[in-house]
Amino acid sequence: MSLDARIQQSVVVNLSNRPAPVWVGPFVIGVDPTTASPSINYATPRPGAPITAGDVADLVAAFRAADRTPRLEYVTGCAPSLEGLLRDAGFVVEARHTYLCCRPTTLRTPAVPDPYQLRTPDTDELLAALIGAQNAAFGAEPVASPADVARVRRLQAAGGVAVMAVTGDECAGGGQAVPPADGVSEVAGIAVCTPHRRRGLAGAITADVTARLFASGVDLAWLEASGEDSWRVYTRVGYERAGERLYMTMT
């Protein structure tokens, strides 16, 4: 299986493990009844599956039936004709992201900068602190709902990873990785709150999450980079450019 196909298949498995997945022809929609967020409720195609305009129309209808915004994320190399079909149906490009990959032989683990420590959030209070810090770092409200906490608890219970950076009683940031599928896992949500940036913490978090995946038997970790700062962080700890993912949505 090609690298693109492995990454794409891992997304298919991740979405199919959502609380209420919906299969529509070659697509799966990862529906989560606890939130309408398009960043959580989106679709992706099975790698290499043939796709028609009728399949896209059925997908849109399924999104409407689920009361969710039609949206997709996928590896472009696994469905080269899909972008045109989506544009014809009224979708627009939301973003194009490069994905990077890391293997056990390429991972570099920097020291955790003082005075921070990295730990696993193992209580609802700590999970809420991690989610709040991530939200704040990404410009959202620094709060975590009970549904948010339950979502990360499910991730951990299924074999995923959550790591938080703490100093004293403060959560300075953190990151996560989804439950592995056939030796592949996505690292996501790497975040450092503004007062704690430019100290090497993002790289330490990324490397720690990745090392935990490899210790559990994962052989391929991947993530997305969307700016120069994140590129520098990820390449310094051993991630290498691998392919492209496309986000498309219907407004």
Structure explained in plain terms:
The chain contains seven helices and eleven strands. The protein has 251 residues and is an alpha+beta fold. The strands form two sheets. The protein has an eight-stranded mixed sheet with strand order 4-11-5-10-9-8-7-6, with helices on both faces. The protein has a three-stranded antiparallel sheet with strand order 1-2-3, sandwiched between helices. The protein is globular and about 55 Å long. The two termini are 34 Å apart. Residues 116-251 form the N-acetyltransferase domain.
Layout of helices and strands:
Blueprint: H1 3-16, E1 22-24, E2 27-29, E3 43-45, H2 53-65, E4 71-75, H3 82-89, E5 92-102, E6 117-119, H4 124-137, H5 146-157, E7 161-167, E8 170-177, E9 184-192, H6 201-215, E10 220-225, H7 228-236, E11 240-249
Parallel strand pairs: 9-10
Antiparallel strand pairs: 1-2, 2-3, 4-11, 5-10, 5-11, 6-7, 7-8, 8-9
Helix pairs in contact: 4-5
In short:
Helix content is 34%, strand content 27%. It is built from 7 helices and 11 strands.
Can you tell me the overall shape? globular
Oligomeric organization of the protein chains? single chain
Architecture per CATH nomenclature, i.e. the level-2 architecture of the largest domain: 3-Layer(aba) Sandwich
Q: Spatial order of the strands in the main sheet?
A: 4-11-5-10-9-8-7-6
The SS-based structural class is: alpha+beta
